[in-house]
Amino acid sequence: MERSEKREFVESLATIFAETSFVLVARNSGMTVADVSELRRKMRAAGASYKVAKNRLATRALEGTRFQGISPLLKGPTALAWSVDPVAVAKTAVEFAKTNDKFVVLGGALGTQTLNADGVKALAELPSLETLRAQLVGLIQTPATRIAGVLQAPGGQVARVLAAYAKKDAA
């Protein structure tokens, strides 16, 4: 890479780090092209991005950002993954690491909080952002459904009582 390309790469990574909420660092030593392609496909499906970057350039891009704490993890063959939804990246990476022993999750950063590998695994066990939103909507809708049921119940009871009186009078 030429200097201008390196500068552009560092600037693009710095922009990404400014816009994202979670960055994952993983060791990808000895992975085949097919493995990396499969991982990228899975990351893309989860709404995340995956990039192999030179450690020195990634460290320069991390300087001055809230993810600066992951700089010590950038040793050896490493790769970065990021997303706005931190659970999606963590889940995808941890699941892939279970099936591929050449991919090892080293840690990550959630905002200013630096996580080790166990912290990333704990984050992967949380429900995704979409699941949490669905659960929240369900919680909000449940009281409304119950209120509607309670309000409709007296009307139904009155109608049944009137129908019973009508049948009694008809008999």
User: How would you characterize the largest beta sheet?
Assistant: 5 strands, antiparallel
> How many helices?
6
Using only C-alpha atoms, the radius of gyration works out to: 26 Å
Q: How big a fraction of the residues is strand?
A: 15-25%
User: Overall 3D geometry?
Assistant: elongated
Helix-strand topology string? HEHEHEHEEHH
Structural class: alpha+beta
Number of strands: 5
Calculate the terminal CA-CA distance, rounded to whole Å: 97 Å
- Main-sheet strand order equals 2-3-1-4-5
Mean pLDDT across the residues is 83
What does this molecule look like?
This protein has 171 residues and is α+β, with helices and mostly antiparallel strands. It has helices spanning 3-19, 33-45, 55-62, 86-99, 117-124, 129-170; strands spanning 22-27, 49-52, 78-83, 104-110, 113-116. It has a five-stranded antiparallel sheet. Strand 4 and strand 5 form a beta hairpin.
From the structure above, extract its key features:
171 residues; alpha+beta; five-stranded antiparallel sheet; 60% helix; 16% strand
Secondary structure blueprint with pairings:
Blueprint: H1 3-19, E1 22-27, H2 33-45, E2 49-52, H3 55-62, E3 78-83, H4 86-99, E4 104-110, E5 113-116, H5 117-124, H6 129-170
Antiparallel strand pairs: 1-3, 1-4, 2-3, 4-5
Write a concise synopsis of the structure shown.
This protein is α+β, with helices and mostly antiparallel strands and 171 residues long.
